[in-house]
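Project channel, design review

CF: Before we commit to the Salvia splendens constructs, I'd like one complete example in the thread so the newer folks can see what an input/output pair looks like. Taking Myb/SANT-like domain-containing protein.
RD: sounds good, go ahead.
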Amino acid sequence: MVIPQQAEFFYKGKWSPACDDALVDCLIMLKEERGVSTTVYPVWFLLTASDWIKNKVSVVFSEFELKDRIDMLRKRYYTFKAVLRLRGAYWNPQMKAVVAPQDSWDNMLKMNEFAGAYFYDEEPIWARLACVFGFDDVKVEGQKEVVVRRKLFDADPQPNDRESSSEPGIYFIDLTSDGNLRAREEKGRILYQPPKPYDDGAGTSHFKSPRASSCGSNSPMNLRKP
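CF: and here is what came back for Myb/SANT-like domain-containing protein:
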């Protein structure tokens, strides 16, 4: 059985590793800023992510394209978790891959052909996908902390407004210096207004900068179900 390389599973059309990075970073930033834990993202998240990707990678995606891509990223997250649990599997840090007996792979591929994406390589953005889709079903064995926080965008400047050449009616969100989101009107265009802050029990967001934080973890093989 010939198993394609990982890129053939992951990237079609306009999508690339850089686009995935921008989308995932934006979702993590918005979740942290708004203090929410949902993994079903509202329309204004998608509109904001569309502008973020456009500014970072110069590629434009529609709301529906982003929704489909989030579903794809969710599939990657849960498939890689299943690969980590293959019978006899172990993590090879030099290869950056999960090594498992051939019969374990054969059984997995019969059930889920998409698992072939991880036959040669790891999930390249595993820790950040865990931030996006939640740590509610994983823990780190032998450690008290589930995640280790690290800064994102250390080398990135403040998000810039580059929509001057875009068509009227496209919505954008500004990230202010205090880390809040606001609508802005320029050249007759009213930009999308996110919902007002609400109290969902999570308390006020403690982030005061658009340089949000993300989640990291130890090697994937340390992540297990409770």
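RD: helpful, thanks. The beta strands are 90-92, 97-99, 139-140, 148-151, 174-175, 181-182, 185-186, 189-190, 213-216, 223-224.
CF: The longest helix spans residues 63-84.
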